[in-house]
Amino acid sequence: MIVEEKWPVLARHERAAEWLRVWTDLGRAPRTIDAYARGLAEFLEVCEDAGVDPDTASRADVAVFVRALTTRPGRHGANVVSIDSGAGLANATLQQRLVPVRLFFDYLIEEGVRESNPVGRGRYTPGRRFGGQQRGLVPRLTKLPWIPSEAEWLALLTAFRGESARNRLMLALAYDAALRREELCSLRTDDLDPGRRMLRVRAETTKNRLERMVPYSAPTGVLLADYLRHRATLSRARGPLLLSQSRRNTGQPVTLWTWSKVVRRVASAAGLPRFSTHTTRHLCLTDLARMGWEIHAIAAFAGHRHTDSTLKYIHLSGRDLADKLATGMQHIHAWRIEMLAGTASAGTGR
């Protein structure tokens, strides 16, 4: 397996390699397998350093692994994992590293190798005290996704004006249809319905394997027509919609990494280092909420199975909430004044 070449420690642990092969045979995405391999390999390395058999590792051994993760800097410098800590991996990264370790122990339980899983899930367990909540090893921090202000969005659009027809179309589709990076880069010519301005997002390209149809706006349709004329100079064959323009890969499908580099470069030029390929999705869903869309409609548009996932994506700015509060308070204030006036009138009549 390629992951064993990348992480040699996996080849030294037969059950770990076997567990990864099972997930691979079940058809998990290559990026998922790579993430599982990395998290499990790092755990196995910590076990080897401590002289611990990973098959029989205890909760204390897993805690040592967590401590190793929280005390080392990330590739891009230190991230705050607790107030004023200034070191360690981000909370979301810690959770990501623990997922394959927990699933590996689940596998060992199913195989009869051990009886319990030392990695807590944070799930309800009947019979436990204090409300029956089993806590995970690492508290899960839920942060609001960052979205640009109006001025910041205009700065990004200004920076994109000098980009190619393909890049401008990709930004428009990413926002207009709230597309994930993989969904965007995997679009094909037969996914388009220009007559109705609809776009098919195929199940195999989505995160949860749910196919959906989403609309795109008239301005995006203009960008699409402009790009299709340019695409004809690269290839007239039906197939991948978004093609590379580089000398080395002319006419080949655009990769995820190419789009990430484009967004990173343009966002940096606009002075928005926090802007990523996923920011357009957050912004679109938040804008739909601002326009008064029902949460279930937003979930269907985003391709979420549950509205809980949608609620994690959308958020209103403090100004939006302040405006809503002010509007609500004005209504309540007017109602109280009317009631007071009615009471005063009644008192005068006596």
Describe this structure in words.
The protein has 350 residues and is mainly alpha-helical. The chain folds into three domains: 2-132, no CATH class; 150-313, Orthogonal Bundle (hpI Integrase, Chain A); 317-350. The chain is built from 14 helices and three strands. The relative contact order is 0.07.
Helices and strands, with pairings:
Elements: H1 2-6, H2 14-25, H3 30-50, H4 59-70, H5 91-110, H6 150-160, H7 165-176, H8 181-185, E1 192-193, E2 198-201, E3 212-215, H9 218-234, H10 256-269, H11 279-290, H12 295-302, H13 307-313, H14 318-349
Antiparallel strand pairs: 1-2, 2-3
Helix pairs in contact: 2-3, 3-4, 3-5, 7-9, 7-11, 12-13
Summed over residues and divided by their number, the pLDDT gives a mean of: 83
Outline, from the CA principal axes? globular
Rg result: 26 Å
Order of helices and strands: HHHHHHHHEEEHHHHHH
| Spatial order of the strands forming the largest sheet | 1-2-3
Estimated helix fraction: 40-55%
According to CATH, the homologous superfamily of the largest domain is Intergrase catalytic core
Low-confidence stretches: 76-87, 123-133
Can you name the CATH architecture of the largest domain?
Orthogonal Bundle
Tally of DSSP helical segments? 14
DSSP strand (E) fraction? under 5%
Distance separating the two termini: 92 Å
The CATH class of the largest domain turns out to be Mainly Alpha
CATH topology of the largest domain, anyone?
A: hpI Integrase, Chain A
What is the total domain count?
3
Total DSSP E strands: 3
Largest sheet: 3 strands, antiparallel
Structural class category: mainly alpha
